[in-house]
Structure formats: structure tokens, C-alpha cells
Amino acid sequence: MSSNLLNKKGQMTIFVIIAIVIVAGVLIYLFAFRGKSESISAEFMPVYNSYTECIKDAVKEGANLAESQGGYTQLPAYEPANQYAPFSSQLNFLGFPVPYWYYVSGNGIIKEQMPEKKDIESGIASFVENRIGDCNFDYYRQREYSIETGEPKVAITIQDNTINAKVDQEFLVSKDEKTSTKTTHSVSVDSKIGSLYNTAVEIYEKEKNEAFLENYTIDTLRLNAPVDGVELGCGMKIWNAYDVDKELRAALEANIVAISAGKTGRAKGYYDLDITDKDVSFLYSSDWPYKLEINGNVDNGVMRAEPVGTQSGLGIMGFCYQPYHFVYDLSFPVLIQLTDGEEIFQFPVSVVISKNLPRKAELSSIVDSERDDFCQTGKNEVSINVYDVNLNKIDANLSYECFDQECSIGSTKQGEFVGGVPACVNGYIIANANGYQQKKQLFSSNEEPGTDIVMDKEYDVNVELMSGGKQVTQGAFVVFNKETENGNESVSAVFPDASKIKLTEGLYTIQAYLYSNSSVVIPASTKTDCQEVSQTGIVGILGGKKQSCVTIEVPETKIESALSGGGKTQTYMFTTDLAKGKIKLFAEELPKPDSLEQMQYNFESFDGLNLEVDFA
What we know:
Elements: H1 2-32, E1 36-37, H2 45-68, E2 90-93, E3 96-99, E4 102-104, E5 110-112, H3 117-131, H4 138-141, E6 146-149, E7 153-158, E8 162-175, E9 178-190, H5 193-210, H6 212-224, E10 228-232, E11 237-240, H7 241-256, E12 260-262, E13 272-276, E14 279-283, E15 291-295, E16 298-299, E17 302-305, E18 308-309, E19 320-325, E20 327-340, E21 343-354, E22 357-358, H8 369-374, E23 379-388, E24 397-402, E25 405-411, E26 416-422, E27 427-432, E28 439-443, E29 450-455, E30 459-467, E31 470-471, E32 476-484, E33 487-495, E34 500-503, E35 506-522, E36 525-534, H9 537-541, E37 545-554, E38 557-573, H10 575-578, E39 582-589, H11 596-605, E40 611-615
Parallel strand pairs: 1-9, 12-13, 23-29, 30-39
Antiparallel strand pairs: 2-3, 4-5, 6-8, 7-8, 8-9, 10-19, 11-17, 14-20, 15-20, 16-17, 18-19, 20-21, 21-22, 23-26, 24-25, 24-27, 27-28, 30-31, 30-34, 32-33, 32-35, 35-38, 36-37, 38-39, 39-40
Helix pairs in contact: 2-3, 6-7
């Protein structure tokens, strides 16, 4: 019993000590924070309201900045353009950079940089953290308020029509020995950035999956530029590549802006995407970065469809047709703007046409990681010397091509380059120098320590064509073919558009074609073509066949120009000849083509015509 009493007394002592400690702690707290209150008194409320409004303003500014910059408040790393790809990673829109959601990088790779919603929230949060440090409380400090703030920590939540911001920051206000503090501040701001972003992502995903901008561009290209086709006629059909470029840009401006993403309520038309009720604009300006490459029968900016004479025995005595096929690589930016009231969310994308075809729908399938890595692969140090034909050293820009990839490696100084070249077997060193023809030389960088390159000087030469004692000023063209170690090189002089050309020393095969007006008419004709085809059903399975006939109608065709002269020759052109700056050619005449028979005769006689060359 004595032991139990002692135990109970010990327990009571412990409880008493704990109670004393609790009471002392409460007293110390009340003493230390005398005059302070967690509740905000009416006297301090204007200060806190001012701070809350400052937070709201910062959130609005951050949201507006993100809307104008494709969701970014802090721009991603800038990637510059180069001569191969005119796009940087940002579109300059009215002097303000807007990051592309996808674009063609400087090394020809399509890259994607669409921010996720959490990235936008994080960006606005960082903006607010930096911005609220500039809140101005001078009005209250002049009235003897003391205001102290701690380091802010901001969390942003974006909803469709609002932005909720939670700011954890100690904000202490005191005056006349009274103090109030608050550490958590929550505000809600009206903003459509959430719904605008969601619609932007919907449009972007549609473009990724369907490439609708590329499909509109293909239609515009085929309607406003020569792509492929056949025209009847014996005259040479030509287009000026610069005019084609100009007309194509104007057509793109008109067609891109006509695209509508809105739900119109009417029957879906050609330009209607029927995606959203929001106001959406698609913008393209011919002043923005733009890349156009035209491949095919193109020389010195002149696109040609050369006439072909058919042989007799095809139902017509013989006529001419002009087949043409041009391959376009085209890329340009489109800025997509979504508007709701006074708010505008915008982001640019690159439209990519490769070899007359739209890019593949999924961007990930386009990215060629090998191309991205090739220029960064292990490099071997080599020595390259560049000379002219007289073995004088010249400075040139050098690049190295391996398969379909090309990397800039630097330039020569006083005709010599020593540096690293990516390892490759049977690649090509490509040298470019002002006033010289590009030189492409086989070189295995992983086996050879170096190489010497000899470049041919280019000469500007005016071509003058004579026939029948008179100078030919129109309706003719001359082709200069030269065999080189890399294959045939062809340069054409076209009258009257491009009679000045660039030539280098070498052996040339020269062909001149003269055309004159013609009034020959090929009458309309009808032809029936029959073929045996397999039948359907059981009879077809057993090998049964039947005749299927198609009637082909050829309409009446007027040939406005036809071959009326020309000639062929082969000659070696020395630098002393080319330095004179003028070549005079004398072509033979043929009878004026005034009938189908005469046209046929002229085509058959052309191979026997001679061409004389004189250097003025």
C-alpha cells in the first residue's frame, strides 16, 4: 500500500509540472506578441487590399504575356536561323518574339515546343513572384505605416475562365504599436487563358494529325504555280521563277487568311474547319521568313517546259507537246490567333511542303535523329587546300556532305583549312567562293589526311544568236552542256528574258532552238482504245475475260509557235575566250511551219543543222 501511494504522488507531480509548463508557454506567447493579432483590423484593411490588388495585377500581366507569347512568360532558348532554314525558334510578330509550337530548325529538323498547362501555370507563378516585389506602398509609408514582407512562393491554377493564385508570403503591417500579419493570400482573376489554350491545343493537334495547313498549301501551289502537266504546242513554255515565287506568296496570303476554324452553322465549306465557337484567325505575311526551292528543268531563274515532237503513225501526222514537272520544297510560318473578348492567345507553326507533298502528319516521324547527330559525331583533323586553275590559293567556304546530310566545317584562310571533319566514307567536300563555280569533290574523311581542290572561275557571258543574217531577240533558247567529274552541268540562255549566263572553262555541247509564230491547227480526233480485262464473279475466277473500251477525244488544237531553226555544235571554251564576255552563235534556218507536214519535216531535219561559234 505504501508503494502505491508513492507511485500516485509521483504521477501527480508530473501532471503539475506539465500544467505549469503549458501555462508559462501561454504567458510567454501573450507577452511576446502583445498587441499583435491574426485578424485584420479595419485600420489595416486598406493596406491588405492594396497588396491583394497588386497580386491580381501581376497575375493579369503574367497571363497577358503568356497569351501573347504562345503560353510562355519566359522565352525558351533561342535557336537562330541559317542559310539552309530561314526559321529561328521564334517568329518576330510586330517586333515581339513569339515561340513556334513547331518549326524547322537550322539543321533541317522539325522541332516541337508546345507548353503544357502546368508549364504555363509555373511560368505565370514565376512572373508573379518577381513582379509583386515591385508593389508600391509609398502612400501608406508616408502615413507612418511600417510594412515588411518575406520571400513569396506563388502557386497558380488555371481554369477555363479564371486564374486562382495562392501566395505564401509573410506580410506584416504595424502602426502605433499595433501589428497585424498574414502569411497566405489567395486571389481569383477573371481570365479566358484556360479556355483559349484548350482550343489552341485542339487546333494544334488537328494540324499535327491532319496537316490541314499543308493540304491548303498544296492546293494553292497547284492553282498558282506550274507543278506538273502537259500542254500542246511546239513553242517552248517558260516561267520566270521569281514571278512564280511572287504570285505564290500573294496567293498564300489570300488563302491562309480565308481559313475558318469557327462553327458557322452553315454547310461546311472548303475553308471551314468547324472546330470551335471562338474567333480564330490564321495569318501569313510575305515579309515573314520563307523558303522556296524549285527543282526540275530550271536554269538561272527560268523554268522551262521543252517541246517534244512525236513520231508519225499515231493517228496524227505529228505534233508537239510540252511536258513539265517541277518539284517544290516550301516552308513558311502561320500565326494562329484565338480571340475571346479583349483577350488574344496566339502561337505560330511552320507549314512544311517537301517534294510537292505535305509533311507526314505526326511530327515525331519526321525528326531525323541521325541528321541531328551527324555533325556532332567524332571528327578527324584534315588539311584542305583550295586553288584556282593557275594554282593561286583562294578563300572558300567549306562544307562536308555525307549521304543526304551536309555540315558546315569552316572556311579557308589564305587558301588553307586545317580542322575537324565528321567521319564518313565517300563523302563530298563542297567549296563555294565568290566568282568561282561550286566544286564538289569526293573525300573520305575517315581515311584521307587531306585533299587539294581546284576551282573554276566563272565568267559572265552575253549570248548573241544570229539566224538568216539577223539577230534573234525572242522565241529562242540555247543550252550549254558540260561534262564534269560529278556529271553533266547545264546552263541555258533564254531570249529575251535571260541571255546573260555564267560559264567556266571546258568542253561544251551547244544546242540552239528557234521558234516562230504558227497558225497550224490540229483537227479534233477521236480514238477508241480497247483492252481485255478479267470478269467479275465465278467467270473471272475461272479466267474469263471481256473487252473494255474507252473513247479518247482530242480537241482541236492551234499551235501558236513551232520549230523554225537552230543547230548543234561542240566546242572547247578557254578562259581567254570567256574573258571577252560575249559569245556569238550562228544558227541555220528552216522553212516556216505552216502545215503539219512542214512541222514534221522541221523536227526531223533539226539533227542535221550546224551551229557556228564566234567569241567577240
